[in-house]
Design brief:
The protein contains 14 helices and no strands. By secondary structure, it is mainly alpha-helical.
């Protein structure tokens, strides 16, 4: 949990942003993956315990959702990337808990490449944003548009799942549930394209992105299974506990994605401003943990 910055031991990762950017890139693209790699190396042992798998799902899902929500409130580029890493590592733990070991390993490799590039190019992010020209109103989707975007995204995902099932056989319930969580992020993009103020070019671009994301998910599953599948255990048949966790995870990710999509409509509410301050500080959980550990050390010293 410490190596993967899992909740509630994630605070150390967000406190090392004072390091030079190349050091941050190395940390987030390499060292942070050590815990995940160790977990995958012991996949057969971990998967033999239903309790361990359930704990990975709950801790990983909570870490992913918490990190993603806090990331949206950050104003500094490097701090936002740090919380992004917390969310990504949580999602990787969730994949391990679902028994999708090959996808978890693929996630580690892809995240390393993405995060190294993101940190090394973070210096030009402010300049790039300052150079943007945004004439006209910003596209803010209404409730009806948001519901429509979620329905369209899920329909697209179902169609893509059926197509790939004809090619490579049916997917496990865990893989289908994971894809549903990912498609909620696609629904957010689709909602931006369907908003009243969105130009047609944006609508077409988001439609292409949604189609590409759904196809890429199943394609990457095939690649991961071909590369690492023979050496890693297959996802177990879900029992009552596993089904309950699958439903809980899908609903949780769906609610967070819905809240994120609707956030522009709530942004000017006074309660939202106060909540944003608390979220930007990670709900002060790291400060509480530091105080708890400091008190424990002081008590043991005497």
């Amino acid at each position: 949990a410490l190596k993967t910055a899992a909740f509630p031991l994630h605070g150390w990762l967000t406190e090392v942003m004072e390091a030079p950017t190349p050091v941050s890139a190395l940390l987030h693209a390499g060292i942070i993956n050590a815990g995940g790699v160790l977990l995958i190396r012991t996949a057969e042992l971990v998967q033999s315990s239903a309790g361990a798998m359930a704990a990975l799902v709950m801790i990983g899902g909570l870490t992913a959702l918490f990190g993603a929500v806090v990331m949206l409130t950050q104003s500094a580029v490097k701090t936002a990337l740090a919380w992004s890493t917390v969310a990504q590592m949580g999602f990787m733990l969730l994949q391990c808990g679902l028994g999708l070991w090959a996808l978890a390993l693929l996630h580690i490799v892809a995240h390393s490449l993405y995060k190294a590039h993101a940190f090394l190019s973070s210096g030009g992010a402010v300049r790039a944003v300052a150079g943007l020209r945004r004439p006209g109103p910003v596209a803010v989707p209404r409730l009806g548009v948001v519901m429509k975007s979620f329905a369209l995204s899920l329909a697209l995902y179902a169609a893509m799942a059926g197509l790939f099932a004809l090619v490579s056989g049916p997917k496990s319930p865990q893989a289908l549930a994971l894809g549903t969580m990912l498609i909620f992020g696609v629904a957010y993009l689709v909602a931006q394209g369907l908003a009243d103020a969105a130009p047609r070019a944006l609508t077409r671009r988001t439609a292409r992105a949604a189609l590409a994301a759904a196809a890429a998910y199943f394609t990457m599953q095939l690649i991961a299974a071909r590369l690492w599948g023979p050496w890693l255990p297959a996802a177990p048949e879900p029992g009552p506990l596993e089904w309950a966790l699958l439903v809980l995870a899908v609903l949780s990710f769906g609610l967070v994605a819905f809240a994120q999509t609707m956030f522009p409509l709530w942004a000017h509410h006074p309660a939202t401003a106060g909540l944003r301050v608390h979220l930007a500080n990670g709900l002060y959980l790291n400060a509480l943990l530091d105080r708890l550990i400091g008190g424990f050390r002081t008590a043991n010293r005497f």
